[in-house]
Amino acid sequence: MKGKETILLVAAGLLSLTEPMWAGDIAEPGGYRMDEYRAPVPQTLQGASVVTTAEAEALWREKKAVFFDVMPNTPKPANLPAGTIWREAIRKDIPGSIWLANVGYGAISEETASYFRQGLAAEAGADKSRAILFYCMTNCWMSWNAAKRAVEWGYSSVIWYPLGADGWERANLPLEEKKPYVISN
Predict the structure, then answer these.
(1) Residue 130: helix, strand or coil by DSSP?
(2) What are phi and psi of 56, to 5 degrees?
(3) Beta-sheet pairing, 91-93 with 176-178
(4) CA–CA separation, 109 vs 146, rounded Å?
(5) Residues 118, 110: contact at Cβ < 8 Å?
(6) PROSITE patterns in the record, alphabetically (predicted)?
(7) What pLDDT digit, counting tens, does each position of 36-56 carry?
């Protein structure tokens, strides 16, 4: 029995080194995903290219796309009681990425949309045909929503990396700590 258990453990370990399998045929919604953002995602995004970790790495190494992390960020609440200790969450993302926090929700305010548009323009330039890549984490609809929104805004070279920073990390690729992008006036 020990031989079979060892073989099963080795097989399970090897499977964990590969990219996750898609969780079935998840259909693209007609609009944005509005809730349950951490759930299986579709294999496609109409109007965008979908890339694997190896393809994202090639784009990154060759500097052929501007990378945008769209993971949410929870700011320190303004009304914390005196003496409360607050620790910012540490976000590690793909080196050179721009962290456009909170732009991947299904419904975003005009203020957030403006922040998103300004961040895209400042970092990707005025050329809407420049390659831009969106990611957050594996099975996270935030990057799907953000990439869909960029397509709707007229960007023609949108790339979606659905495995995100944790897929990047599983491939033993470098990560760096980031703070959310701040628009300079």
Answers:
(1) coil
(2) -65, -40
(3) antiparallel
(4) 13
(5) no
(6) RHODANESE_3
(7) 999 999 999 999 999 999 999
